[in-house]
Design brief:
The complex is a heterodimer of chains A (116) and B (112). Chain A is mainly beta and 116 residues long. Chain A contains no helices and 13 strands. In chain A, the strands form 3 sheets. In chain A, strands 2, 4, 5, 6, 9, 12 and 13 form a 7-stranded mixed β-sheet that branches. Chain B is 0% helix and 51% strand. The N and C termini of chain B lie far apart (41 Å). Classes of the chains: A mainly beta (116), B mainly beta (112). Chains A and B meet through β4, β5, β9 and β12 of A and β6 and β11 of B.
Chain lengths: 116, 112
């Protein structure tokens, strides 16, 4: 296991279609995060999981967005009825967290979504 | 709310020049501070971090000191190389929130 893996790396979709991205974190990491990065901006937090529980969601995460981590391992991010404004890089990160603190987050290479 | 402000880029330097990228933050409490680097076509990589006031993070010749009195975490390197060309992001993580709050990034271009 060499790091956080995201698939696909690139996705082009027509407006109105649904898309799903997958993230495989570092295997021993219990925390998983999703961020969105638009051109020329820093990543913005979307949501995070500890094991299978989704503990925090940003206001950026509209009703069209849903994230799951069903078995506390990989995670999926689905965007329904995509809009052009959804075009961005979607980044996944993972870390190890517990009562003694948390490690730094390791990021995947991201999925670049283009909505046409 | 919490925020991070970075100097705007691009920063263009000649090889072996001295680098400073300014970063200031706004946060309650005592956040942890980070610098991440993003090379072309790649994901974010942690460059260095500091978890409390006066800590100095260092890696690959880069350094940054956590200054609580000036709420700053400026990135420095004494002699940059062409291979340092990338986008650099300053970020903070506060307490139990776990999420990172990033600045807008600074593009560094090093010319031979």
């Amino acid at each position: 296991d060499t790091g956080v893996s995201q698939n696909p790396r690139h996705k082009i979709t027509k407006r109105g279609q649904n898309v799903t991205f997958r993230c495989d974190p570092i295997s021993e990491h219990n925390r998983l995060y999703w961020y969105r990065q638009t051109l020329g901006q820093g990543p913005e937090f979307l949501t995070y999981f500890q094991n299978e529980a989704q503990l925090e969601k940003s206001r950026l995460l509209s009703d069209r967005f849903s994230a799951e981590r069903p078995k506390g391992s990989f995670s999926t991010l689905e965007i329904q009825r995509t809009e052009q404004g959804d075009s961005a890089m979607y980044l996944c990160a993972s870390s190890l967290g517990g009562t003694t603190g948390i490690t730094e987050a390791f990021f995947g290479q991201g999925t670049r979504l283009t909505v046409v | 709310g919490d925020s991070v402000t970075q100097m705007e880029g691009p920063v263009t330097l000649s090889e072996e020049a001295f680098l400073t990228i300014n970063c200031t933050y706004t946060a309650t409490g005592y956040p942890s501070l980070f610098w991440y680097v993003q090379y072309p076509g790649e994901g974010l990589q942690l460059l260095l971090k500091a978890t409390k006031a006066d800590d100095k993070g260092s890696n690959k010749g880069f350094e940054a000191t956590y200054r609580k009195e000036t709420t700053s975490f400026h990135l420095e390197k004494g002699s940059v190389q062409v291979s340092d060309s990338a986008v650099y992001f300053c970020a903070l993580r506060r307490g139990a929130t776990n999420k990172l709050i990033f600045g807008t990034g600074t593009l560094l271009a090093v010319q031979p």
